[in-house]
Every structure is written in structure tokens, then in C-alpha cells.
Design goal:
By secondary structure, the protein is mainly α. It has 9 helices and 2 strands; from the N terminus they run H-H-H-H-H-E-E-H-H-H-H. Helix 5 (about 85-105) packs across helix 6 (about 135-145) and helix 7 packs antiparallel against helix 8.
Length: about 280
């Protein structure tokens, strides 16, 4: 949440701020540096040159300081996602394992011999016990893994590697998936530019000629281009891009052929009421 809001939540704020500011006001028109900035350039400059905001990319006072704080928060969030979970699981495993061994004082083992994978020696309060009873000790030592939800014996190294993989996938996936969704933004910009081109080059140019025949021809061409290109081709392109993004970037959170994906279940009030009546 901290990582996403520090980068892409800030981008959403920039979009809304740019939309709400009046760039045609008298104060803005009299200032040569007051022009709508490129938000992509702001986000790139936030990483490439932190603390430095060119005048053409400035939206508000204190922008450089805010962007440095958000960048630091995003960088701190990466080790925060990586480190706490493995160490917390290790502490919970050791605490549960200690309680189980303590509650079964007739089968005790020195701390150096307690291991979730192997058990070197088996000892009781009177000394070494037969090796046949070691299976009972191993059963006690594997109980913490079962209680904590692990399929097999707990291993700190495997947990750390697994958490590292998840952290890398989240960071890279957050950047790549969000960048993929930005193509819809690019499509909207291209749509606006095509609208201006068709309006100026076809309709306005024909009106400036003053010829009735030219106006009719220009209007017909503008109407065909608007319906054929903007309303049909552009709408189809935006639909296909959105469909592809929905299945690739969004559905991979629920469907995973070779992993631990889960079936997508939309929110339904009827199922909640049915569950309440059954309980």
C-alpha cells in the first residue's frame, strides 16, 4: 500500500490537480512558465533527479520536497515487505516449538539439537534415551509447522527466499502492470488529437473556403472520419486493449495454471444473506 500510493497514488493526485487548475486564468496567461506540465516527465524526474523540479514541470509549491519524501517511502517499503514476515514467522515457530517441548518434559532436547529438519540426539532428564523414541521427539518438533500452517517442516531460508521472490514480483508487477494500463491514457490522448486534426483540417478548412460545395464535401469527409475512425476503430482499439489488460494484468491475481491461484468470486449480497441464514 505504501509503495503503490507513493508512486501511482501520487500520479493520480497529479492528474486531478492538473485537471482542476485553471490554465487559462489571467495570472497564468501572464506567466510564461505557467503551462500544463507533462505528468510522465514529472514521474520520471521523480526517480532520475530527486529534489530537482524544472520550472516547466512545477505544479505546486514544495513539489520537490514532497516527491523526495514519497520516493524515500517507496524505497523503505521494499525492505519492509521483505524482512518482517520471515523473522516474525521464525519467532512464532521458535516460541511454539519451545512451548511444545516444555509441555512434554519427559522428552527434552538441548537447544543445539532441536532442528526442524533433523534431530541429532534424543535426551531425557535422566540422560540419553533409545533412538527409537526419537520419532516422538520429531513429531513434537514438527507440530509448530503444522500449527503455523506450513505443509512441511519450517525452514527460515526457504521462507526468506520465497518472500524475496514475492517482493520482487510485486515491485516489478506493480510498475509493469500499471504502466500497461497507462496505454489507455495514451489512447485517449491520441483520440483527442485525431479529433482536433479532423475538425481543423476537414471541417474548418472547408468552411474557410466559403464555397457551399466545398463545405458539403468537407462536412461529409469530417462525418465519415468521425464515425469510421473515432467512433468505430478507436472504440474497438480501446475495447481490445482494455480486454487484454483485464485478462493479463488483472486476472493473473486469481487464475494461475501452475501456481496457487484462486477462482475469482465477485461480491454478492445474496450469498452473504444465504451464509447468514445457514449459520
Amino acid at each position: 500500500m505504501i509503495f503503490m500510493n507513493s508512486i501511482f497514488g501520487y500520479l493520480v493526485f497529479l492528474i486531478l490537480f492538473k485537471w482542476l487548475k485553471n490554465w487559462n486564468s489571467e495570472a497564468c496567461m501572464s506567466d510564461p512558465t505557467c503551462e500544463p506540465p507533462d505528468l510522465k516527465a514529472i514521474l520520471i524526474g521523480m526517480f532520475m533527479s530527486p529534489g530537482n523540479v524544472p520550472p516547466k514541470l512545477k505544479l505546486y509549491d514544495g513539489q520537490a520536497f514532497v516527491q523526495v519524501l514519497l520516493l524515500l517511502a517507496a524505497l523503505v517499503a521494499i525492505p519492509w515487505m521483505l524482512l518482517p514476515k520471515p523473522f516474525l514467522l521464525k519467532a512464532r515457530f521458535e516460541r511454539t516449538k519451545y512451548q511444545i517441548v516444555k509441555n512434554n518434559s519427559d522428552l527434552e532436547t538441548p537447544a543445539s539439537d532441536v532442528d526442524s529438519h533433523h534431530h541429532v540426539g534424543c535426551f531425557s532428564s535422566s540422560g540419553s534415551i533409545p533412538i527409537a523414541h526419537c520419532s516422538e521427539v520429531r513429531e513434537y518438533l514438527n507440530l509448530p509447522s503444522i500449527l503455523l500452517g506450513f505443509q512441511g517442516p519450517f525452514n527460515f531460508g526457504d521462507t526468506m527466499v520465497n518472500q524475496m521472490i514475492h517482493t520482487i514480483e510485486f515491485v516489478l508487477g506493480a510498475v509493469s502492470n500499471t504502466a500497461s494500463y497507462l496505454r489507455l491514457w495514451a489512447l485517449s490522448l491520441a483520440h483527442a488529437e485525431l479529433s482536433d486534426v479532423f475538425l481543423e483540417k476537414l471541417l474548418y478548412t472547408s468552411i474557410e473556403t466559403g464555397s457551399p460545395v466545398g463545405i458539403v464535401i468537407g462536412f461529409s469527409m469530417w462525418l465519415c472520419a468521425t464515425i469510421g475512425v473515432l467512433m468505430l476503430m478507436e472504440s474497438l482499439s480501446a475495447f481490445l486493449h482494455a480486454l487484454r489488460l483485464h485478462w493479463v494484468e488483472f486476472q493473473n491475481k486469481f487464475y494461475n495454471l501452475h501456481g496457487t491461484g484462486r477462482k475469482f468470486a465477485p461480491f454478492d449480497f445474496a450469498e452473504l444473506r444465504q451464509a447468514e441464514t445457514e449459520s
